[in-house]
Amino acid sequence: MRRRSFMGGLLGAGAVTVPGLAAAASAKKRPRVGVVGGGILGASIAVHLIDAGADVVVFEKNTPASGATQASLAWINASTVNTHYRDLRLSSMAAWRELDKRLRLGVIWGGSISWSNIPAKVDNLKKREVALRNTAADPLVVDARKITELSPCIAPGDTGMGFFLPHDGHIDPVDVTLRMLSYAKTKGAQVIYPCAITGIDMVDGAVKVVKTSQGEFPVDQLVVAAGADTPGLMDMLGFKLTINTVPGLNVHTKVLPHQTDMVYDVSSALEFKQMPNGEAVVIYVGGPPKQLPVHDPVYGRAITAYPSPELAAMHAKSLLGKAAVYWPALANAEPDKIRVGFRPVPADGLPVIGPVPGAKNAYVVATHSGVTLAPILGQHAAAEVLGGAPAAILAPYRPDRFTGEVKAGSEG
Fold this sequence. Notes:
Elements (H helix, E strand, L loop, with lengths): L5 H6 L9 H7 L4 E5 L3 H12 L3 E5 L15 E2 L6 H21 L8 E5 L2 H14 L7 E2 L2 H7 L10 E5 L3 E2 L2 H14 L3 E3 L4 E7 L2 E7 L2 E4 L2 E4 L5 H7 L6 E11 L9 E4 L3 E5 L5 E6 L11 H8 L4 H16 L10 E12 L5 E4 L6 E5 L3 H16 L27
Parallel strand pairs: 1-2, 1-12, 2-8, 4-14, 12-19
Antiparallel strand pairs: 3-7, 4-6, 5-6, 9-10, 10-11, 13-16, 13-17, 14-15, 15-16, 18-19
Helix pairs in contact: 2-11, 3-7, 3-11, 4-11
InterPro entries: FAD-dep_OxRdtase, FAD/NAD-bd_sf
Organism: Duganella aceris
Pfam families: DAO (PF01266)
């Protein structure tokens, strides 16, 4: 479905039934909930809150989907060595199918192929395949011949280990975020941008007023889903939360003839796919998570904008050349959009979702897997914010685990 035609489908969409939401909504009469962040997580939270009967206002400092969301590969998958986290991701993949059906979001369920010949990466892939085995992910171990059979446009080279996940999907993250926000707006939500948070007034440990560059807004509940900006907002609430970032170069090409619906992951560093509109997307993830002050707007501008179009084009051509080794059609592809993105990664590598310690009516959602987890975290956040019972599946991911010392790590 093209962008021009999606509004008709949104206007006719029905409400999703989520256990706990109806009871939560009846506990209060249209509570006023502020959601900070207009990326895919904030949009999903807004959808589920508005469906539950809340009065919702979304605050976005720039434009919707302009941060980590637009720089994402937007790959929906369950690949991890952590079996509990795997199950959360599988639950969200099922939720994606329901949300896609209801809001006509255009998810491409084309599967994915991951492979590597680097010993440490091969070992990690083997562990992931074991964790995914005998689950709904249904992994298939593949070699170079099988990869080419599954996806004739790909030349994988030497594959020490590889697997195919037939049920993975991907989206246009900007388009899907805008569709979600448009749906929420048709049901009465406000989406305000550009709207920076300048302060938070609290009384007796509860948020009362959110101060912004667009004025002051009284709220009954506040949800922070602001990606790399989350630590600064948590500081305003009196809670220390470390969010590291993984910088990555994201390049969209000009439209190419359709070749594939799959997502490809080479050694967990080079990832690529083809968008529904024909653009190829290539991402290079640069190194381990680092604690960078990307919530500082001056610093953020300095490292997300290239000093010249020529330098940006040079980096894009270099990245496309690396990907063309595996996807030959990219050899002559022309770069179109070139971005530096920052994926927010909590200190231990796992999602953070739940009430903010020390703030009676504040809630935080932060994860590097925002696209994969958006539907399930939106469902649970809405239910819990509106008074529903705590979701048992979220127990390992609560922010109060950071009240003690936490070692840096990764969900793998």
